Amino acid sequence: MSLARRFERASERHAGRDFIHVPAAAARGYAPDAITITYAGARRRVDDLRRAYAGAGYGRGHRVAVALDNRPEFFLHLLALAGLGSSVVPLNGQMTREELRFILNHSGAALTVAHEGHEALLQGAMPAAGRWTPGGDGAPPAPVRAPAAAGDEVALVYTSGTTGTPKGCILDETYFECMGAHYVGIGGYCAFREGEERLVTPLPVTHMNALAASFTAMLFTGGCLVQLDRFHPATWWDTLRESRATCFHYLGVMPAMLLAAPPSPRDPLGGSVRFGFGAGVDPRHHAAFEERFGVPLVEAWAMTETGGAAWITASHEPRHVGQRCFGRAPAGLDWRVVDDGGDAVAEGRPGELLVRRSGGEPRRGFFAGYYQDPLATEAAWAGGWFHTGDIVRVGPDGSFFFVDRLKNMIRRSGENIAAVEVESIVQQVPGVAACAVAAVPDDLRGEEVFVFVVPAPGRAAGRALAEEIQASCLHRLAYFKAPGYVACVDALPQTASQKLSRGEVKRRAAAAIESGSAFDLRPAKKRPAPAGG
After folding, report:
1. 529 domain-assigned
2. Is 67 helix (H, G, I), strand (E, B) or coil?
3. Kind and range of the H or E run holding 239
4. Same domain for 461 and 382?
5. How far lies 61's CA from each of 65, 140, 147, in Å?
6. Which pLDDT value is given to residue 129?
7. Gap between the Cα atoms of 276 and 357, Å rounded
8. Among 238, 351, 415, 483, which is least packed by CB within 10 angstroms?
9. What whole-number percentage of the chain has pLDDT above 70?
10. Beta pairing class for 386-394 and 399-405
11. Is residue 530 situated within a structural domain?
12. Alpha-carbon distances, residue 394 vs 303, 324, 453, 483, 513 (angstroms)
């Protein structure tokens, strides 16, 4: 069933129920109070938007880039465009103009929809004729580009790739259908009750979790999506109480920050919130969180590319709390854990996780491919298996345990950052002869970006160079991609074949922090002020 048809059926069956709720604190800056939209109210607004888009000439295959942050309008535009066979390209408002320009050009977006707070950012990234700020009496302008997507594409989501430039993951109707069906069918700790759930998520709609997991779970069950602007640890529990939350989504950074607050008599929620769903909780914090707050944290594993087709969840016991366990493989999922040569490893030994759907359609429910990059798509599916790039081990009871990432990626507060993308910017800084980027542990954010720099001849090694490097990255990349640590060295470690030794870079980065030889620039990495409008 198509996403648009799913919504139409839900709006008929659950007309008077809440569909989307934004608490007052999350809506500050653009609304005077909390926002609640019922299924019937959303249906009227979606129908109006669809007619407006159709009247302007949008239809099957057009892509529309959407920069509406975590506001409820994002989902209304998504549903309206899906009903026309058009696709959305979610835009992260924290990106630089250069990053946005790449995505808008690469995707072939025919229009950019944004609130007033992003107008200045989009100037120069998209022709004025192709921009629309909804509101008032204005209507969308005619498309500035021809259709570029297949008719069953719902979204084109850009995710960092190991080649440096982001890759566009094509997510089609089957992807969204499989995502929703899988999540609501997990059961166990994550059992959804028809028409009763109120799911709180602070995660960005530019990622598959908020775009396709929490959203479809509520759509499929007639529940209410409580969409926050972002995570606010100081008001988190009050927001859950005020929103009458029954479950929430999290990233590993969140439990750490909530546990850092002084204990309070208001900590336990008394069973009203039945579970938290997410990934990456620090093993040191998992049991402590559940004991203090009375909410089980259900760890899971998936990727933008795998969606619900290869989604593993620790929703049933044994959960192996505090051991980075993300559950056992569900029915219908084929998997292998292999070594560098592609051979299966022994039980309990780490190896790369390979996955596919069982039966005659191994790619069903996965992403449809990387846009305009068939070679990368087929490389990811080498040998008929999707290569996840994640190193795992499997225990005697079939439980999966996360070990590390094979790909050279940094995961900071839920954001995937390609090391080579950061390296490409650092290498252009005057005074840099060579550089290498690695992930280092961070107690609050999971991982942080670390850069080793070899100064060019005549350039002094020191804090001034480190700050210049960070400033250049902050200017050209989203703030979270900029280095939090910089260390100057005489040479970078190499393998016997004269290639950069990534493993040794990572080991030395951790040692540099421990010894104090790296410059700690984390205080300068600040989230930009929220855009108004």
Report:
1. no
2. strand
3. helix 236-242
4. no
5. 13, 17, 5
6. 84
7. 27
8. 238
9. 97
10. antiparallel
11. no
12. 19, 11, 38, 34, 32
Query: 303-342 as b/e, with b when 16 or more CB fall inside 10 Å?
Result: bbbbbbbbbbbbbeeebbbebbbbbbbeeebebbbbeeee
- Please indicate, yes or no, whether residues 373 and 480 belong to a single structural domain of this protein: no
In a domain, 398, yes or no: no
CA proximity to 268, closest of 278, 258, 277, 253 = 258
Locate 122 and state its tokens.
Answer: 């989009």
| Listed residues 358, 391, 424: the one ending a domain | 391
Q: pLDDT means per 10 residues in the chain (533 residues)?
A: 97 98 93 97 98 97 97 98 98 90 96 92 86 84 95 92 76 98 97 97 95 98 97 93 96 87 82 93 92 96 97 98 96 95 92 96 98 96 96 96 84 85 89 92 92 92 95 93 96 72 90 95 86 61
- For residue 152, what are its two tokens? 């069953």
Which amino acid belongs to residue 507?
A: R
User: In this structure, are residues 35 and 24 in contact, taking their beta carbons and an 8 Å threshold?
Assistant: no
Could you say which of 363, 391, 419 is where a domain stops? 391
Q: How many domains does the chain contain in total?
A: 2
Say if CB 357 and CB 309 are below 8 A apart: yes
Question: pLDDT tens for residues 481-518?
Answer: 999 999 999 989 876 555 678 889 999 999 999 999 99
Spatial distance between the Cα atoms of 312 and 335, rounded to a whole number of angstroms: 11
Burial class (CB in 10 A: 0-12, 13-18, 19+), 431: middle
Q: Which residues contact 229 (CB under 8 A, 6 or more apart)?
A: 26, 27, 69, 70, 202, 530
**In whole angstroms, what is the distance from residue 321 CA to residue 314 CA?**
9
Using alpha carbons, select from 228, 222, 263 the residue that is nearest to residue 243. 228
Range of the domain at 274: 3-391
Q: What is the pLDDT of residue 137?
A: 61
Rounded CA gap, 86 and 42, in Å? Answer: 19
Residue 404 forms part of a structural domain: no
Q: Which amino acid belongs to residue 516?
A: G
Q: Look over the chain and give the mean of its residue pLDDT values, rounded to a whole number.
A: 93
Q: Identity (one letter) of the amino acid at 499? A: K
pLDDT (tens digit per residue) in 225-276 = 999 999 999 999 999 999 999 999 998 888 988 998 888 888 877 689 999 9
- Predicted pLDDT at 532: 61
**Amino acid at site 34:** A
CB-facing half-sphere around the CA of 299: CA atoms within 13 A: 27
